[in-house]
Design goal:
This protein is α+β, with helices and mostly antiparallel strands. It contains 4 helices and 9 strands. It is elongated, with a radius of gyration of 22 Å.
Length: about 170
């Protein structure tokens, strides 16, 4: 079997070596890393399962905190309060960390209770068709799925929507 060259991060040192030289990066573990699942750190199977299990716990806690944080009634634009119940479809722009989600909903208040987010940036009237147009328009900024990098083009579009709603 051919040896693969790899970047080895071991006990705070970075070097080049072969995959035979790599040990699990967990402190005091000398097992060889698992090769079944691609993972950015060399971890043995036992420690990979521990890391992934903890990641699920952290993600669940973050989602719960976000839902609690964002459970209050939301004011999307200065004169457009979102209440309880269905409404005409809107395309929404929300920020979570350094990413922006472009989605659509006919019950935005309910939708926002289940999506982790820091703030609602803007909305515009429209449904799935307009959402697809916006996804295509900002395809160069797409990170994953409906999440986008906050590029100058995207921020300009969001600000234009906000300015448009100021006069309503």
């Amino acid at each position: 079997m051919a040896k693969r060259t790899a970047v080895v991060v071991h006990r705070s040192q970075v070097s080049l070596g072969t995959t035979d030289d790599i040990e699990c990066s967990h402190p005091r573990c000398r097992h060889r890393p698992q090769q079944t699942y691609p993972f950015p750190l060399p971890l043995c199977s036992r420690h990979l399962v521990q890391v992934l299990s903890r990641s699920v716990e952290v993600a669940k806690q973050a989602k719960q905190e976000s839902v609690v944080k964002n459970n209050a009634p939301l004011v999307l634009q200065e004169k457009h309060a979102v209440g309880v119940g269905a409404h005409d479809a809107v395309v929404y722009y929300i920020r979570f960390g350094n990413r922006i989600k472009i989605g659509y909903s006919t019950n935005l208040a309910q939708r926002l209770r289940v999506i982790p987010h820091d703030e609602v940036l803007a909305t515009e009237h429209g449904g799935a068709a307009l959402e697809r147009i916006r996804h295509t328009q900002f395809a160069a900024e797409r990170v994953n799925g409906e999440w986008f990098k906050p590029s100058p083009r995207l921020i300009k579009h969001i600000n234009a929507l906000r300015d448009k709603h100021k006069g309503l």
